[in-house]
Write a structure and sequence with these properties.
Elements: E1 2-6, H1 12-15, E2 16-19, E3 22-25, H2 27-43, E4 51-59, H3 72-81, E5 91-98, E6 106-114, H4 117-122
Parallel strand pairs: 4-5
Antiparallel strand pairs: 1-6, 2-3, 4-6
Helix pairs in contact: 2-3
Length: 123
């Protein structure tokens, strides 16, 4: 089980940009990826090769109305880039939970490797 405290991910709308047919990661997304990579490297966990469950508490930076699910894909992409797992397609269960506002925002992440994936656990 991996526990990480991360900065709040930018929303998907602020993570990716597009120029013509070219899709790119915006500066806010690159900064977030770099921060996550540093935190993951400091944690020193080996790369997960099996199926995973991902539990995330999202503490927004302010009280503005926002969809917390718009932060899931940038988070998973950053965790992939940081080498937590091989690919975010390994995630069988994703649970997002909104917490109270924290200045600057924060995400608490728990990653559990599961042997048989969600089908077996639910049975």
């Amino acid at each position: 089980m991996i526990h990480l405290t991360l900065p709040i991910a930018p929303t998907i709308n602020h993570y990716y940009g597009q120029s013509g047919h070219r899709k790119f990661i915006r500066p806010a997304g690159l900064k977030f990826r770099q921060e996550v990579a540093e935190i993951v490297a400091d944690a020193g966990h080996p790369t997960i090769e099996g199926r995973v469950w991902l539990f995330v508490t999202v503490s927004p930076a302010n009280k503005r109305r926002q969809d917390i699910d718009n932060r899931a894909k940038p988070l998973q992409d950053a965790l992939t880039h940081a080498g937590v797992w091989l690919d975010d397609s390994q995630v069988d269960l994703l649970l997002l939970y909104r917490q109270p506002v924290i200045k600057g925002g924060r995400m608490q992440v728990i990653i559990m490797e599961v042997e048989d994936g969600i089908e077996q656990k639910a049975a």
